[in-house]
Structure formats: C-alpha cells, structure tokens
Design goal:
Low-confidence stretches: none
Distance between the termini: 64 Å
Mean pLDDT: 91
Helix content: 55-70%
Shape: globular
Number of strands: 0
Structural class: mainly alpha
Largest sheet: none
Length: 138
Amino acid sequence: MNAAAPPSPYVRIGGEPAARALANRFYDLVEQDPAYAALRAIHPADMTAVRHGLTRFLCGWLGGPRDWFERGPCIMSLHRAFPITPALADQWATAMACAIAGMEDIDPAIGDAMAQALGHMARGMINFGLTTASPAAA
C-alpha cells in the first residue's frame, strides 16, 4: 500500500498568497523598523521587484512553482556583490523570523522550521567582516 505524499510546506502554509504575504510582511519590517536600517540601505528605493523576487523564491523553496529557480543565478550568486556582514545576515534572519511569527495562519512548527532554515541560509551568505584566526604560536 502506498501512502500519499504529505502536502508540501507550500501547500501547508497556503500557497502563493501566503508566500506573497510573508514577503510583503518581511519587507514592510525592513522598510519601517529602524532596527533593520543597514539591511534597508542595501536595497533599492523601490522595493517592488525585490518583494516579487522573494515571493517567487519562497514559492519554489517551499515546494511550489520553481520559476524563480529556473531563471538563472542562484541565491548565493545574486547576493555576492553585496558586503554581507554577520550583523547584516543577523538582521535579515531576525526580520524574517519576525515576519514568519506574525503570520497567524502558518503552523508554528512549519514557521519555526522555516525561520531556522532561512536564518541558516542568510548566515551562509556572509562574505565580509569575518576575521580569520591567526595560527597559534609554536
């Protein structure tokens, strides 16, 4: 007997409308909360395109339509041009965790898993401001 595959997180959170609401909630925080000023500063004045891009990324990442992933560069490549410090990555992760927590229709277990995975991804993009340990003196 074959059990049906469980619904994807995309389906479980409510599909594209929920992904769009999450992207908008995230960028509303980035635009309005002074705690995210450094993060806001690396974005264009008009955030329409980045809101759309995050929506499409989230859709595919959660198991929905993968058009964002099929269009070209990976998420890491797109962000390589920006000096992403540990503090900036933490701002992104914190804003996303707050945006997810504010989504009342997302199951808390899925929301927590999303916040953890997306935070890990944000911290994986750090490309500036890391100190390298010097070799221990002999």
